[in-house]
Design goal:
122 residues, 7-stranded mixed beta sheet, 11 strands, mainly beta, 4-stranded antiparallel beta sheet, 52% strand, globular
Length: 122
């Protein structure tokens, strides 16, 4: 089993920044993919970014490229999502997920955190 705990959400004005953290614990030996997803009210959960736990390869949806950066600290078993130049459409609950490889499909992740709310509003 793998446990994931997100933190770092909050209320920020448009153009502001937030950094989300996801601390992983448990049986991590089979985990090579860590992802961030988000879900806005009334919408489906969508892929935001992913990183390969060992090699560090990163993947993003087009709408966040150049604004968001996913990174990891292997020593702390923690993944981060640095979000800059935030827009109102970035609002939603952000979920951390863990799976065998860094993919964009929800089905590829076996473990999920509880989510953290990000609200971008003036």
């Amino acid at each position: 089993q793998v446990q994931l705990v997100e933190s770092g959400g909050g209320l920020v004005q448009p153009g502001g920044s937030l950094r989300l953290s996801c601390a992983a614990s448990g049986s991590l030996f089979s985990i090579n993919g860590m992802g961030w997803f988000r879900q806005a009210p009334g919408k489906e959960r969508e892929f935001v970014a992913a990183i390969h736990w060992s090699f560090g390869n990163t993947y993003y949806i087009d709408s966040v490229k150049g604004r968001f950066t996913i990174s990891r600290d292997n020593a702390k078993n923690t993944v981060y999502l640095q979000m800059n130049s935030l827009k109102p459409e970035d609002t939603g609950v952000y979920y951390c997920a863990a799976g065998r490889l860094p993919r964009a499909r929800r089905e590829d992740y076996a473990y999920w955190g509880q989510g953290t709310q990000v609200t971008v509003s003036s």
